[in-house]
Amino acid sequence: MTLPSTGTDALAPATTTTAPRRPRRRRYRIGQSMTRRRYVATAVISFVVLLILWALVSAAGVTNPRFLPSPLQVAVTLGEQVANGQLLADLGASTYRILVGFLLATVLAVPIGAIVGISARVEAAVQPLVDFIRYMPVVAFVPLTILWIGVGEEQKWLIIFLGTFFQQVLMVADAVRSVPRSFIDVGETLGLSNGRILSRIVLRASAPRIWDALRITLGWAWTWIVLAELVAATTGLGYRIVLAQRFLQTDLIFAYLIVLGILGLVTDVLMRLIGRALFRYERIRR
Amino acid sequence: MSGLVHVDSLTKSFGSVEALGPIDLALTENEFVSVVGASGCGKSTLLSIIAGLTEATTGDVTVDGTPIDGPGRDRGVVFQGFTLFPWLTAQGNVEFALENERMSKKERAAYAREQLALVGLSGFEDHFPAQLSGGMQQRVAIARSLSYRPRILLMDEPFGALDALTRRDMQSLLTRIWEQHKLTVLMITHDIEEAIFTSDRVIVMTPRPGRVRADLRVPLARPRAAEMTTSPEFRGMFAEILELVHEKVA
Q1: What percent of chain B has pLDDT over 70?
Q2: Chain B residues 24-53 with CB within 8 Å of chain A
Q3: Confidence band for B1, pLDDT divided at 50, 70 and 90
Q4: A69, A97, A140, B138 - which has most CB atoms within 10 Å?
Q5: What own/partner pairs with CB < 8 Å and gap ≥ 24 does A102-105 have?
Q6: Is the pLDDT of residue A258 over 80?
Q7: ipTM of the predicted structure?
Q8: Quick check: B141 and B86 in contact, CB under 8 A?
């Protein structure tokens, strides 16, 4: 205790008479930063630890190898799939579906989102509706889309579209709304028309955030495509997984899961890198 | 009517709250006028109405006898915060303001460079706003607003976000530019010394609703120099305005 001693202190337990407690030096400060190298090293270690755990569990023989194949076996299967061209064909089919569905969604969502973001009236008409629809799980639309348009390519595009479009509209609208009012004031005082203010100032100012929205929704697209292909397809990553399940080829399922993880990661990193190149000015510090 | 800008019995209410007026005000051609007042006295609203960015509730503003209808290139505006576009360089920001002008790309680039030189930013053309100090950013903003030669320059606490030393420099720079180029300036500020140092006239506003309490002519010669801020005339005027700003409305 650091309080000045009083008469009552004499009656207090002996421990209170020891030296005042010094605040302990903080080992870690909240939000403390780290060097890039250490960051990467730590991340790599996480992956290695997971891999070792997996190898140990499968080697210990406590699990049936039919359900948990060893990392080596998965690697071999993956190698075979690459060698016989199956993986590339599946990858091509899935990627093409994503691109079509995602681009369709983006081409519509960016202008619609922009108008929702700049007009209170359009926002009132569109945003609550979109909010309502986006809470309907995409999964639940799969049976309906099959009834509507069958099991062809269009159905895959539609699932990707449904899974990304509504979120994109909301995220683009948010990005547009975050443009400082003063930027628009500048445009008005320069005598620009509303169309020019929208294209030259509002969309340009919100472009980094719009790009971020596209990056995030593109990541989800990988989930939606596998979902669509699990249910009804004759090609694609999801189709291969469901086929592997039928023949109890868990090593193939594992191989494709790993590929999906890598694809998501690569897509994200690629989008980040392009974003950095496009919006170099965002990272400038004096 | 000899003035360039006339503000006639202007009022502004937000709902049932009377924020401004009625206000009458006239700016003569090539005059530098400052408006000071306690925060919340509606001085920024006044500027915003003259800029055409805010609509008046009653009354009107005329420029050269014509009532204003929204913003226009006859009135340049320098805002309080930093309003440069972060995706454009200093040069790009000035050129942006010149896009409507009839000039070739080359002419525009050369002209923008000239405007940056005018505010002492030669050599910083290719810097992005994030690479410039607050004072430099505001200089680019001034260059941008002056570049298309508006007849009137409206400034809303242009140096409010700057540190005291930078602000002094900017006041000198602004005064120098004005003395060389002669244009009509209306500046909103809460800094009484800044108002006296830069202006021909200082208008003191009362708060809630904002009205003109006093309209004082600055008795200092031109060109203005930093030493003037310690002169008896300057200090006397400072004391007078300070009292006017803080005095309760009877």
Answers
A1: 98
A2: 51-53
A3: very low
A4: B138
A5: A102/A160, A102/A164, A102/A217, A102/A218, A102/A221, A104/A157, A104/A161, A104/A165, A105/A160, A105/A161, A105/A164, A105/A165, A105/A168, A105/A217
A6: yes
A7: 0.91
A8: no
Give domain status of residue A272, yes or no: no
Whether A13 shows a pLDDT value over 70: the answer reads no
pLDDT at A7: 46
Domain of A133?
A: 92-250
Q: What is the mean pLDDT of chain A?
A: 90
Chain A positions touching B77 (Cβ under 8 A) are 185-186, 189
Q: Which domains does chain B have, with CATH numbers?
A: 1-66+151-156+165-250 (3.40.50.300), 75-149 (no CATH)
- How many CB atoms sit inside 10 A of residue A282's CB? 14
> Domain count of chain A?
1
Binary contact (A188, B133; C-beta < 8 A):
no
Q: Classify residue A241: in a domain, yes or no.
A: yes
pLDDT for the residue A183 = 95
Domain CATH code at residue A227: 1.10.3720.10
Cβ-nearest to B72 among A191, A201, A282: A191
